[in-house]
User: What shape does this take?
Amino acid sequence: MTGATGYVGRFVVRELQVHGHEPVVSRQRVLEPFHVPDADAVIHLAGLARVRESFRDPLGYWETNVGGTLNLLKALRGQRFLLASTAGVYRPSDAPLTEESVREPSSPYAASKAAAEDLVAWTARSGRIGAATLRLFNVAGGGDTDTTRVITRAVATAAGRGPGMEVYGDGSAVREFVHVRDVATAFVTALETCEVGSSTVYNVGGTSASVREVLDTVEAVTGRSVDVTWRPANPDEVKAQRADVSRLRSLGWTPAHSSLEEIVSDQWAAVDR
Assistant: This one.
């Protein structure tokens, strides 16, 4: 398992153990020739994941996210492979996004993930591996420390940590949020239903909410105001992004912890204030 010590990885490791699996944490760098220990599956969570940064370093993002995936796949034969991808691969749409929705990456980061998805899918089609690609929407809760994410930033601002936050537009933009604990159970569900020779994509979302609703919920949960600087709307901003998670639900998975109130409450409980 790569990326096991990261934000999502720690929760995935715990969930695997709860379900009787024995996760092995890889210490290898994904850009080096890879050796896979005696394991029947690999969960690939490591990679670069900052959208704005990717515009400054597109080569680095492709080298890590595509090249790293390639190195892992070269070392596999007969195992299952789970890839953490992003909802950023989709073309914006007012309708809920399904796994068949058109892909149209708008950043080097998202493009690198789309390329990694293709690499995984074609490798599975050859019969070499079994594959599941999980397109994660906005992961939150559980003590996230990445304040580029809206819920994490809003909670940190309410706690008095940081200079406040900027919101572009009137706060009506809608995003899909999912608790990191539900992401972890999604990986276990996908792992346990993955078979060699098959390749399946899953959306991993939980609840949709506007930025204004996030701010209101943070203030209600914390009892504190969120210092917001309102900026003019970006004409290129996606107005709405919602996930259709029917495919994953059909396997028995449910986003049990992804109400906006629970995500915010959980993040607030983890903040050192």
Remarks:
- The chain has one domain: 7-270.
